[in-house]
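Tip: read the tokens left to right.
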């Protein structure tokens, strides 16, 4: 497991839970608005030796031992956690300590999601819906298999696990009209979150700032497109 960082306590990353968030290195998307660029490009994070990675894992689980009874759960985010070959074993160890687990994913590894659901290793899943299907690759900045994305959505909807789908809405990358398609795609899902794009000072592609300058999208208008189609729709 390539751990890129640890937030020792969060009240917002896991709905209704006091949690810690662990960040994994590496991602197969290149979303220009990503605010964790140091977790995306291998050129920006330190490649650990096996000894360093093992030591970091030991330190992480030693930390969890000290948080029994103080934290409810652990959020696993990235980067893209499902790219980690030992993710299943990593989560097993967390669950054995009595924590609930929330997984953030871009949905490109439905095979991993299926295994996690079958083994009952996750308690909450948040999947990023990057855009309408026709705009997906442009927003992701990478060539992707849309059938895998759609399969992940279906797996999550039918998993019996609590979940949310969410989109970071970026003026200049998204249009209001494309969310009509997204609303039809996500029809009958439990929870959909519209996240307003915020510039936190670091993004993957600095040129995005010029592309979105002066542009706006009305999230309240988009929200109305989902009302009556998903059980809950929220703006964050």
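Filled-in amino acids:
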């Amino acid at each position: 497991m390539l751990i890129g960082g640890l937030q020792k306590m969060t009240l917002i990353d896991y709905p209704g839970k006091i949690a810690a968030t662990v960040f994994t290195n590496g991602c197969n998307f290149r979303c220009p608005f990503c605010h964790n660029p140091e977790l995306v490009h291998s050129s920006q994070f330190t490649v650990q030796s096996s000894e360093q990675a093992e030591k970091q894992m030991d330190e992480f689980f030693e930390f969890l031992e000290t948080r029994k009874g103080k934290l409810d759960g652990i959020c696993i985010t990235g980067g893209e956690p499902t790219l980690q070959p030992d993710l299943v074993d990593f989560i097993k160890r967390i669950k054995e300590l009595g924590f609930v687990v929330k997984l953030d994913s871009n949905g490109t590894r439905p095979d991993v999601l299926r295994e996690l659901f079958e083994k009952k290793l996750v308690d909450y899943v948040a999947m990023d819906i990057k855009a309408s299907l026709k705009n997906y690759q442009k927003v992701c900045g990478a060539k992707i298999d849309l059938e895998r994305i759609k399969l992940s959505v279906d797996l999550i909807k039918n998993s019996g696990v609590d979940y949310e789908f969410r989109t970071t809405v970026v003026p200049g990358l998204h249009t209001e009209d494309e969310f009509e398609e997204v609303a039809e795609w996500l029809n009958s899902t439990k929870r959909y979150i519209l996240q307003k794009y915020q510039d936190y000072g670091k993004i993957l592609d600095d040129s995005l700032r010029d592309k979105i300058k002066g542009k706006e999208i009305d999230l309240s208008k988009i929200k109305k497109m989902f009302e009556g189609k998903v059980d809950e729709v929220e703006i964050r």
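The chain has one domain: 3-235. The helical segments are 50-66, 87-96, 110-118, 136-140, 146-157, 178-185, 208-212, 219-226.
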